[in-house]
Amino acid sequence: MGAAPMAWVLWSRYLTMCPTDPGWPDRDRFVLSAGHGSMLLYGLLHLAGYSVSLDDIRSFRQWESRTPGHPEPFATPGVEATTGPLGQGAGNSVGMAIAERALRARFPGLVDHRVFALVSDGDLMEGVCCEAASLAGQLGLGRLVWLYDQNDVTLDGPASLSFSVEDVAARHRALGWHVQTVADGNHDLDGIDAAIAGAVAETERPSLIVVKTTIGYGAPTKAGKAAAHGAPLGAEEAAAAKAALGLDPETFFAVPAGVRERCAERAGEGEAARSAWYGRLERARTEAPEQAAELERRLGNGLPEGWDEGLPAFGPGDRLATRDASGKAMNALAARIPEFFGGDADLSCSTKTALVGFGSQSQATRAAATSTTESASTRWRPRQTESPTTAGSAPSLPRSSVLPTTCAPRCGSRRFPGLPVVYVWTHDSVGVGEDGPTHQPVEHLMSLRVMPNLHVVRPADANETVEAWRHALRRTEGPTALVLTRQKVPVLTTPNGPPVSSAAVTCSGNRIPPGRRW
Amino acid sequence: MGAAPMAWVLWSRYLTMCPTDPGWPDRDRFVLSAGHGSMLLYGLLHLAGYSVSLDDIRSFRQWESRTPGHPEPFATPGVEATTGPLGQGAGNSVGMAIAERALRARFPGLVDHRVFALVSDGDLMEGVCCEAASLAGQLGLGRLVWLYDQNDVTLDGPASLSFSVEDVAARHRALGWHVQTVADGNHDLDGIDAAIAGAVAETERPSLIVVKTTIGYGAPTKAGKAAAHGAPLGAEEAAAAKAALGLDPETFFAVPAGVRERCAERAGEGEAARSAWYGRLERARTEAPEQAAELERRLGNGLPEGWDEGLPAFGPGDRLATRDASGKAMNALAARIPEFFGGDADLSCSTKTALVGFGSQSQATRAAATSTTESASTRWRPRQTESPTTAGSAPSLPRSSVLPTTCAPRCGSRRFPGLPVVYVWTHDSVGVGEDGPTHQPVEHLMSLRVMPNLHVVRPADANETVEAWRHALRRTEGPTALVLTRQKVPVLTTPNGPPVSSAAVTCSGNRIPPGRRW
C-alpha cells in the first residue's frame, strides 16, 4: 500500500511493456526485489492486462496458483525474476542492465530498454545488494533505476532498531550512483514522476530514488507499523482503509473505471511499441541481415554453427590441471560464441578463466561487452535474450572462487527460472592443502549434488573437462557447475569420448519446473 | 611488504598483548582479515615473542606446520580468527567489538580492550564486510579500528579494472564511521601513528584508517604490480628488494638487533599489563566476589548452576510448531544464562527467537547487552570469554532465516575454531508451500549434514526441541544447527527423554581439530 503510488507512476507513465506478449524481447524490465510484497506486483500485472485474473488474485498463496507468496517467473506471466530472499532481485536487475548495455551496443536499434527495480530497506541491508550496487556504479549502468521504498519498518518493528545510522543515499553516492529523494511518497505523485524522469535522463550512472513512504498507507490503525508488514490487515482494518482511501468498504476485488481506462490506454501504447520493434526487426532482415540473423539465433536459443569445433583435445601423455583444460576450452568457445561472457572475482589468473584478447566490461569499453567479456570464475552463455538479462549472477558472485557455498544461495535461485548459467569452481578439495583448511572445501561437492536441477560435473581429466563444457553449453534447462582441480592430473581418456550422462551429474531428482512458461 | 609499516606501528606502539600467555582474556585483538597475507602475521608473531620460531616460518605452507597458507587459531598461537575467505575476518572483528563492549559494561575494570583488523581491497569489496560495517556503525563500536591497506592491486591486475569508482572512505562515513587517510603508508610512520592515536581517541564510532600503500614495497621490479600479489618474488627479486631496503641480500631469516630490542621491550610491557590485570582480578575476588566468580565461571567454560531447570515440558495433548517450542526454551535459558545472546535479522517475530524483556543491543543500551540481548535467529552462548569475541557471526547473519545456505560459509568458518555457536533455522522445508518455492529449502538439510563438525538437529516435536537446546548448550567443541518447523506438529514424546545422540546429529565424521590449542 505504501509502494503503490510509486509503482503506479512507474507503470502508468514509464514502463514500456506488452501484456499480451510478456516475453517481447525489448520490453523494459521491472523487478520487485522486495518479493514479499508480491501482491503489489500481482495487482499491477492484473491492471496492466497480463494474464493474471481477479480469480488468480483470489488464489493468493494457494497451491499451484499463479500468485505464490513470492514471485516466480515460471508461475506468473510478467514476473521477471525470482525474488523473496532479500537483495537477490536487486542483484538480478544489475545483471539485466549489464546485458542490456552489451546487447544494445551489438544490436543498435533492436535492443534499447531500461531496467527498474523496487527495493526495500531489507534489500539495502544485504551485502549482496551492496556488491551489486558497487558493480553498477563501477560500470556506470545508466539504464538502471532503483526505486527505494523507504518505509523505515521491518517485520520486527521500526528500522531504527537496526538501520538508523546508515545514510543510504550517501552510501550510493559513494558507489558512484545518481541519487534523488522524494520526501512524500504517499501523496507526491508529481515528485515521483519528476524523479523518475530525472533518473531516465541520467545516462552515465545508475539511479537511486529514495521514496519516503508509510507502510500500510491508508490503514487507520496499522499504517506505519510493523503490524502492516507481514500479516493481513483483517476485515475491520481493511474496510476502514478502503473508507479512508475513498473506496466502498463493501465492494471487493473491484477496479475503478478510470484506472481500467488508463491501463487500457497504456496497454495500447505497449502494443504499439512492440509492433514498432517488430517492424524494425523486419527492416533489419533486409538492411542488416547478418545482424538480424544473429539476434534471431540468440532469441531462438541456438548455438552458432561449428560452435564446438575449436575445442581442444588432449593425448594420453598430457598432464595438466582440469582448471587449465577448462581455460583452454573456454577460450576456444569464446572465439566462436559471441554471447559467451561472465563475471569474475579478480581471480581469473588463478581460476584460469581469463578470455585472452576479448577485453573486459568497463565504462570505457561498452562495445567489447558485445563479443565476449570479463575474465570469469562464473560464466554464462545467453541461451536466449532473456537469459543474460535474468542471469544477473555477476554481481552475486563470491569474491573467492574456492568456496562454492558463498554463492550457493544464488545458485539455488538460478535453478528456479531454469537459467543455463555455468559455474566454474576451481581449487577442488584436498588438493590445496598448503592454503590451509579454509581452502579445502571437502563437503561442498556433496552439498552441491543435493541441489535439484543443478548439474554438477567433476571431470577426472582434461578431455572430460572439455566434454563437461560441451554438456554445459548444450544444456538449456538449468545451471551447470564444473568442479576443477588446481593440481595437475594425468590424461586418462581419449578426446571426444562419450558425452556426460545425466546419471553422472546429479544425485538428486529434477522436479523443478523447466523455466518460464510465458 | 606494503602493509608492514602500518603493522609495525600498531604492534610496536599500540597493540596490548602478552606473547607468553596468548589467551590472556583482556588482550587487544588483532585480526588479519586479508588472510592471504599470512606471512605478515607470522612474522609479527615471531618478532613479538609468540611461540612461532624461524623454523616454523621456514615451514610456511607445509603439511601440519604452524604456518599454513591462511591463518588458523588452532594451528598458531596468537592467531585470533580463521581468515582467508575475504570479508570474514572483518566480520569477526565486529563481533569481537560487540562482545568487548557488552563484557566491559558487565565487568568494569576487568574487560577493557580494543579490536584492530587489517583489511584489504578484497575484503572491502565483499558484501559481508559492508553488512558488518553497517552494524558496527549502527552500534557505535568505538573500540573497533580497521586499518585498510589500500594498495589498489588485485590478483588479476590493478583494482581500477573492478574497483575504481567507489569512494570507500565516503561509504564508511555514510555508515557512521570515523574515517582518516594516510597518504603515504610506505614511509609516513608518524602519520600512521597519528591516525591510530586518533582512532583510539574516538570512542563513539568505529574507525577506518585508509592507508595508501604499494604492494610488494621495496621489490624493484614487482612493487605496485599484481605479480607481487599471489606468488613468491623469486630469489633475484628478493635479493634486490633486500638491497633496496638496506638489508644484506646474502643473509636469510635474520632479524636486526634493534628490532629484537624494541620487541623485547614491548613484550615486557605486555607482561606488565597482564600482571596488572591478574592483580585486578585478585582484588575483585575480595571486593566484588560475585562479579569475579561470574567472570571466572565464563572463563572456565562453565554453565551457571541450574541453567536448564526452567526449560519447558510438553504433554502428549500439546500441538505446537517446533519454532514455538524453541522460543519458549530460549526464553527459559536466557533467564538463567546471562551470556546467552545473539544476532537476528529483524525476523524474530517469525523465527520466535525474541527474548522478551531482555532488551536489544544498541548505542543507547550498552548495559542491556551484558545480560541477554537481541532477538535472534542465530544465537550463541559464550562458552568462554573468547567465544563471544571470536563468534562474531552477528554481522555475518543471513537477513533471511529461512535460507540457511546464505550463511553456510560462515557456519563453515565457525567449525574450524570449534566455536559453540547455535544456529536457529526455522520454516523448514516443504511446510511453507504458500511462500513459494524460494522459501522451500528442501536440499539444505542434507547440505548441512555433510558439513564436518556441525551438529544438525531436526527435532520431531516440542520435547525433542528442548533436548536439542540442551545438547547445543552443553556442546563446547563446535557449532550446532537447530532446524525447526513453521507449522504445528503434535507432541509425540514425553518430557526429559533421552539426550540427543551423536549418531542423530550428523552423517559426516568429525575430523576437524577441536578448537584452539593455546
From TrEMBL, chains A, B:
Regions that span the bilayer: none
One MF annotation (Gene Ontology) recorded for this entry: metal ion binding
Biased composition (Low complexity): 360-379
SMART domains from the UniProt entry: Transket_pyr
Any one Gene Ontology cellular component term annotated for this protein: cytosol
Domain Transketolase-like pyrimidine-binding: 320-491
Domain of life: Eukaryota
Annotated Pfam families: Transket_pyr (PF02779), Transketolase_N (PF00456)
A GO BP annotation: pentose-phosphate shunt
Residue numbers spanned by region Disordered: 360-402
Family listed: Belongs to the transketolase family.
Descriptive protein name: Transketolase
